[in-house]
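Make up an example, fold above all:
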Amino acid sequence: MKRTGELVFGIIGSLFNLIAISFVGLLVVSMSSVSVNEQFQNELVTEMEKNYANNPNLQDIDPQSFADTVVAFTDGFGPFGWFFIICFVISLVLGIVACIQAYKAKNKKANMAGWLFIVAAIFAGIISFTSFAYYIAAIICFVRKPKTENQTLVN
């Protein structure tokens, strides 16, 4: 039995994983450069002071405390970003192993590939494009069974 459907959805999930890894990596690198840059912090405070002078609704917010909050957010994003990258890499590896398992399984042991796809989907995020592709591949692994030969019983 060919397992083309499982392989296609597994490859699609792996490609989405690569896109997510590169996107989150880019965010982590850009956020870390923002928190280090003192000139950016000073420009942020200056711009906010200009905007506060023109807008009476923003008089209650202190520009320096807002800039400190932005810096704290960018500093805190780094560890969470690396955590997401590690989860996506684990998901990618599991997805590739599941694709290989589904390809080699042909008629037998496709359930193992299905479980690997489910674990990969959990690491990719419970609700994401990657996890949906892996869930579909897992469902196909569980549902498709090899055709049985029609055997007639002779009495």
